[in-house]
Specification:
By secondary structure, the chain is an alpha/beta fold. It has helices at 18-21, 51-63, 74-83, 110-120, 149-158, 169-174, 176-187, 222-236, 238-244, 246-268, 275-297; strands at 39-43, 67-70, 96-99, 126-128, 143-145, 190-193, 197-201, 207-211. The chain is built from eleven helices and eight strands.
Length: 298
């Protein structure tokens, strides 16, 4: 721990704080409109897990993005529209996709499979979570994945030559930093490995260790909110991703983890929280980091 009680990053990994994060938070200008502020396409949630759609869309909406296009099954679509009537449910052009949260790859309805396939083939940056991690190899655009230990073990096992090469969730838990880096290099995607310390690794590129947020963040739906935060940031920085590729995706992943963690701290205030509490704290975190850094510069 350093003098402020923040866990020091693992050797070879860069820490991340508000001074780093502010450079990756897009602030609208007077000339901005909903399209120039970024349009995020979202294919998450399912009839079985509809809440993931609500939480991911809420996370993206409250982080700052010009428009969200949600494409999903009837039940999650209905819940999303009841909560956020400004969401667009018609297909159209987007700057990034968030896919997979709240989906089960072992029982994927044809309609969901078609939506996922269209997003994967679009060619824009993708945030891929949970129920779409098995489709990473089909993506036409640059990818950042957001697995927890078990999900990353499954991804690596799918690429193993035989069972003797398979890695387990316990293996990853024992050295998450190393496995995040190895996964990024072997899979050719940026990896955001969730945990108390989040490790973000780009293939052959930068590596960030982000320790932010209380242990109360380990609650159902928290990862869905994180996916929404990251999706919004990726959609608002499509140009930087086009220029800098996985280096930009890694910085955006670290920023999302930091913002999500700070929102958890603010929402919890030392006590338990639920996922929607994190959502409610997001705008204040974004506002404060922009104002704090602006005041320091002035």
């Amino acid at each position: 721990m350093d003098d402020e009680g923040v866990e020091a990053p693992v050797t070879g990994w860069q820490g991340w704080d508000e001074r780093d994060a502010v450079a990756w938070i897009a602030v609208p200008q007077e000339s901005s409109d909903k399209y120039s502020r970024g349009v995020l396409g979202v294919v998450i949630g399912s009839d079985r897990y509809p809440g993931a759609a609500v939480l991911g869309v809420e996370g993206a909406s409250r982080t700052g993005v010009g428009m969200i296009r949600y494409l999903g099954a009837d039940r999650p679509s209905d819940l999303v529209m009841r909560r956020r009537p400004e969401i667009v449910t018609a297909p159209g052009r987007v700057q990034a996709w968030l896919i997979g949260s709240g989906m089960d790859p072992s029982s994927r309805p044809d309609d969901d499979a078609q939506r996922l396939r269209a997003a994967l083939h679009d060619g824009v940056p993708l945030v891929i979570d949970a129920g779409a991690l098995d489709l990473v190899g089909r993506a036409a655009g640059p990818v950042i994945v957001t697995p927890h230990f078990r999900e990353l073990a499954g991804m690596l096992a799918a690429g193993a030559d035989d069972d003797s090469d398979a890695v387990t969730a316990d293996d990853i838990a024992a050295d998450p930093a190393d496995w995040a880096m190895r996964a990024a290099d072997s899979l050719g995607v940026t990896v955001l490995l969730k945990g108390h310390t989040t490790y973000v690794a780009a293939p052959g590129g930068p590596r960030y260790a982000v320790t932010a947020g209380p242990a109360w963040l380990a609650t159902a739906g928290s990862g869905d909110v994180l996916g929404g935060v990251l999706g919004a940031l990726v959609a608002t920085h499509a140009r930087e991703i086009d220029e800098d590729g996985h280096a930009a995706l890694a910085a955006l992943g670290a920023t999302a983890a930091w913002v999500h963690g700070r929102a958890g701290e603010r929402a919890a205030a030392g006590g338990p929280i639920v996922a929607l509490d994190i959502v409610g704290a997001l705008p204040g975190v974004v506002r404060d980091v922009i104002l704090t850094v602006a005041d320091a510069a002035g």
